Amino acid sequence: MKFGILVNEGPFTHQASDSAYQFVKAALDKGHEVPRVFFYYDGVYNANKLSAPQADDRNVVKRWSDLATEKNVDLVVCVAAGLRRGIVEDNLMDGFRISGLGQLTEAAMGTDRLVMFGD
Amino acid sequence: MAEYEFDTEGVKKTITFLNRKAPYGTIYALEVLESVLISAAFEQHANIVFVDDGVFQIKKGHDTADLEMKNFLPTYGIIEMEKEDADEDEDMDMNWRIIVEKESMEARGLTPEDFKVEVEVLSSAELADVLATSDAVIGG
Amino acid sequence: MLHTVNKSPFERNSLESCLRLAKKGSAILLLEDGVYAAMGGTTVADKVASAAKDNSVYVLGPDMKARGLAEGQLIDGIKVVDYAGFVDLVADNDGVTPWL
To answer: What whole-number distance in Å separates Cα of residue A4 and Cα of residue B63?
Structure first.
């Protein structure tokens, strides 16, 4: 099955990004496909390469990045939401790409299930 | 990473945009609205649903001048126009519904006349049936 | 349809709206702060127990454990799932409606 994921909140402040990540990991472990994770609203902050959390806690941004490089998951940051919040190419973490809101509609159309994580 | 190439040829889904938040206190109302507008280009079926404080999004008379925030109430008018164009165009297979939950509306002392756009007012049971038919739900 | 509720019923009306608008026979998953709704002995327990009769109600185990909630405290009829179970719930139902 193909899952599309929508992440509405940034790292740490809300659990949404963690829940989404754990869900994606479990889905991939079960042999499902996760063709796209779309980051909207404050979710764009998950792509901020300047995030530097404490060493004894999870690195949310890096974790997503590793998922992209290791499992080829397409991580998309909404360009408009990103611009509002200052997430642009200059500070974009590896593995993420910036694109339009149409990529969310496309994910809704092209996957079997859309799962949303937010506040 | 590389863009995933979806094959969406001939796909026709029903996307529900679930609006439950009041406008201006948070950005969700505005950004869901933006996603509705973008989705029009894909000619999918849509339920644009207002539940709980979401009903306040379409209440007439927003005046944001003193807050120096963008007043996006007029944008709901564009949604209504998209819907009307789709309804009138026999060649377009795009069924958009603008729905308000009766219980949410009445709990907040509102009537359909308070809204900027024409809405279908559904009971909770009727709306439950509509929600059960969604292929995908986007909200905030 | 799988409905997800991620906020505490004491903080938000998300659970209440979910229960009002989930068609009977739905699956409902309580996760994140929503797991508090799965515990017996609260002012919402009767409502949730009743919902568990008409729907299949699940609670995400890792979120329960994180918050120090024990399976013994669960309302009758609520089933615990892990993330693999969460994935199965999404796959086995025809869509997901999130109640934030």
So the answer is: 37
